[in-house]
Amino acid sequence: MTVKTYSFQINTNKNFEIIDITSKINGLIDIDEGIVSIFSKHSTSAIVVNENESRLLNDLEFMLNNLVSDKFSYQHDRIDNNAKSHLKSFLLSSSECLPIKNSKLALGTWQSVFFIELDGPRHKRTITLTMVGE
Amino acid sequence: MTVKTYSFQINTNKNFEIIDITSKINGLIDIDEGIVSIFSKHSTSAIVVNENESRLLNDLEFMLNNLVSDKFSYQHDRIDNNAKSHLKSFLLSSSECLPIKNSKLALGTWQSVFFIELDGPRHKRTITLTMVGE
Amino acid sequence: MTVKTYSFQINTNKNFEIIDITSKINGLIDIDEGIVSIFSKHSTSAIVVNENESRLLNDLEFMLNNLVSDKFSYQHDRIDNNAKSHLKSFLLSSSECLPIKNSKLALGTWQSVFFIELDGPRHKRTITLTMVGE
User: Which residues of A touch chain B, with CB atoms under 8 Å apart?
Assistant: First the structure.
């Protein structure tokens, strides 16, 4: 049994951007079997698992804009003009804890892991991987 | 310290269906203390923890239908007519990582673990359990 | 490699209340590196990670009240008058699994861990910490 920790950084180019990080994570896994915490160190981003289909990812952006509406004024915007980015992050959450088998993520056929930028563009978004297993 | 991995399958009978998998999971746990990743290998389903009370579970279905509204048209529906199922999965998430104590889930009195079918009926939905502990 | 389990209790004073539990958790961590499951044993509460800024936390309460609207009647309210509290808990989730490094939570600069009371005031809300690592 062992613990392994890695981190990597991403630059984002748009205000809302979805980046598939599955192969990046698989390239860093160096245990055979166990679990991995995938954690974004930022409170205006998210880590999620779903299907990598471009129209579905557009639908996700549409849904989030509908749930965290532009119609309202938010108090946090008086300090830092990104309340909606934080609120979307609360709904999606900033981490996932996933299974590893045969030295890679044990995902289903139609699943990918995504980093979601909710307040970009940003330089050097940091994601940490903490693996526990053998 | 050890890692143990199991999986099991569920057949669902309705488009939206909530299945209590707490006792199924407890029957598969074979470590005394640690954590377990409970992961659905499907992007139109979810794993959640809450109270097993039938009217509340009806309210959950109602809320999800309200948040991911039929009023809108979704781009993913042109490819595969289940955009709303994926979007509900994004909101609930496809996994939970929970504590194990005395060889079972260390839940509160009013908590159960549920598999939520969001795009059924389906044959052989797969859930994996990855336990780390001793 | 080892497993360590702790729990602590919180009394809440309001119906909706957000309590920063980051320093409480850091004080209980006694492994150097690994992951920790932070789990609320209650189905009308949540554990989340985001920025500790008071206006943002007001915005979170506003958003939740908007998403789980007072306009509707919920079936669970016939049994126990707290359906909306459970539904908000489904959206936020009752646990987080986070990385530990150098014997504390490996959070980003603007991140804190919060316990969210969704159905208070309550006496003795229990949060469990299960750490796996070395």
Answer: 1, 33-35, 48-51, 53, 55-56, 58-60, 62-63, 66-67, 91-93, 96-101, 106-111, 132-134
Q: What is the pLDDT of residue A2?
A: 97
Query: What is chain C's mean pLDDT, rounded?
Result: 98
User: Tell me, what's the ipTM?
Assistant: 0.97
Peptide bond into C121 cis (omega under 30): yes
Are C82 and C44 in contact, with CB atoms under 8 Å apart? yes
Query: Rounded to an integer, what distance in angstroms lies between the CA atom of residue B32 and that of residue B103?
Result: 4
Residue C20, pLDDT score? 98
**Are C85 and C5 spatial neighbours (Cβ–Cβ below 8 Å)?**
no
Cα–Cα distance measured from residue B117 to residue B132, given in angstroms and rounded to the nearest whole number = 27
For residue C111, the chain A residue with the least C-alpha distance is A43
- Cα–Cα distance, C31 to B106 (Å, whole number): 21
CB C16, CB C120: distance < 8 Å:
yes
What's the order of all strands across the beta sheet hosting B17-20? B17-20, B112-117, B45-50
Q: Please check whether residue B60 is in contact with residue C74, taking contact to mean a CB–CB distance below 8 angstroms.
A: no
